[in-house]
Amino acid sequence: MDTFADEQLRYRIALAAIKGMNRLLAEKLIELTGDVSVFFTLSQKELSHLTGLDSSLFSEVERGRVLRMASDEVEFIRKKGITPLFLTDNDYPQRLLECDDAPIMLYYKGNNAALQMPRVVSIVGTRQATPYGKNFVETLVRDLVDMCPDTLIVSGLAYGIDVAAHRAALRYGLPTVAVLAHGLNTIYPAQHRNTAVEMLERGGLLTEYASSQITHKGFFLARNRIVAGLADAVVVVESGVKGGSLFTATIAGDYHRDVFALPGRVGDISSMGCNQLIRNNKAALITCADDLVEAMGWGTRTSEPIQASLSTIAAADLSPDEQTVMQYLTTHGEGQINRMAVELNTPIATLSATLVELEFKGRVIAFPGGIYRPV
Description:
The chain contains 17 helices and 12 strands. By secondary structure, it is an alpha/beta fold. Helix 6 packs parallel to helix 7 (161-172). The termini are far apart.
């Protein structure tokens, strides 16, 4: 057992567990102190002076409480074979780092390779799914196997559309990850335990909640931001006019993810939310896997990428960032903005601004689905 690694993990878990702590403050503290452990050794007065903040988050009582909890969590993690993912870890999902409200700490059980898949589709929808919705999910996942076999399917393991997505992925051999609203000491709903266990071989279970945290109904809404943030595209399959699926779609739009919705008959309660998303231009209409693949530009990459040296595409009017993007686009033939952000390790806001500049300079052309091609 690596005592030093366990102690570092303990400090990380404790930092994430402090009430009111968020990603931006955590990153500021790490930058100022140089190490998470320092946060727990300085006095409240020293921390207030260092950060310029006078906060109850820095109290010795609160820090003592979370450290005690974290000691138990480290033991649970080691015993259960759980992978802890801190926001500065290389294995932390890169897409989530584009989100300001990304969790400071994640807990994952399963195949670690699943979180690094080049394409991620989150499928969400009503718990009261109809045969129409379930059949669509089945067909969508089945066809993605042939068209994009390197795709990860993400959902929330809930009744209805969520579990239908996970089970379809298992049936057709795609990796699938469930984002949970509770710790990894339990599975909810219990009826989906067998499905959860099956997912561990090629996919897994992911949560931001420690095993000691008591589940709260608000956690189910909060976890939807992770479902959205992990994805390149979010597909809403059946939803009423209110509910978690619409919240996920809204968050996905805020994260600059592509959102799709399955249309339904006018008057069908289970399709009202999807029809509303399409009507309000908050989601693109989807009827099959071809719609998704075409919109995302996943099926149009040239079979023989154009090879070009940086000296060929570099020009006096291009900044270093613009040259990097042009190198990528020229090499691959085209790029989808969410995937480019991951592969170039660039915040999506920065990449978006660079692509706009390249459009103004006449170097790239934008296409639907966040696709960009060099001129």
